[in-house]
Design brief:
Helices cover 13% and strands 46% of the residues. The chain has 156 residues and is mainly beta. It has a single domain, classed as Sandwich (Immunoglobulin-like), CATH 2.60.40.1890. Strands 1, 2, 3, 4, 5, 6, 7, 8, 9 and 10 form a ten-stranded mixed β-sheet that branches. Bound molecules: copper (II) ion. Copper (II) ion binds next to strand 8.
């Protein structure tokens, strides 16, 4: 039993040394936006560009404007494009930009609590498999828009 204790202490020391380095490589988040929704719409899509500092996965999120946040991908099914929940989340690799955009991966807000109006913004916390959660501000663009709205926050 005496041999086990020093090994456990060494393992704890290794974990505490590794922690600051992992935190320094946080996910970079660019241009989060959502499409405006119709009155009484139950879902909304959020798009964002992510650059992870290490191999990770975007697995979901949380927002006050909806009951749930899911990671969706768009797939072709018998010539019809439809979206499905991405099993295991969206893979992220170190230093590579991954764009969630119309026609591809997106965050699906399910069970909307209210309509999203163009020009408004709302908080969204992104959940990753390894990185700590990141809270971002999502700007709402026009309904059916295919590019992000221009944000005064991004102007010089
Ligand atoms: Cu979706």
């Amino acid at each position: 039993m005496r041999l086990i204790v020093p090994v456990a202490v060494l393992l704890l020391a290794a974990v505490s040394l590794a922690a600051p380095a992992a935190r320094a490589q946080s996910v970079m988040v660019q241009q989060p936006w959502a499409r405006a929704t119709a009155p009484h719409a139950v879902t909304a899509a959020v798009y964002v560009t992510l650059t992870a500092g290490m191999v990770d996965r975007l697995i979901g999120g949380r927002t006050p404007v909806a009951a749930r946040v899911q990671v969706h991908e768009t797939v072709e099914d018998g010539g019809v494009m439809r979206m499905v929940e991405a099993v295991g989340g969206l893979p992220l690799s170190s230093g590579r930009k991954v764009a969630l955009a119309p026609g591809g991966y997106h965050l699906m807000l399910v069970g909307m609590h209210h309509q999203l109006m163009p020009g408004e913004s709302f908080p969204l916390t992104l959940h990753f498999a390894y990185e700590p959660p990141v809270t971002i501000t999502v700007l709402v663009g026009a309904a059916g828009a295919s590019i992000p709205p221009v944000s005064i926050m991004h102007m010089p």
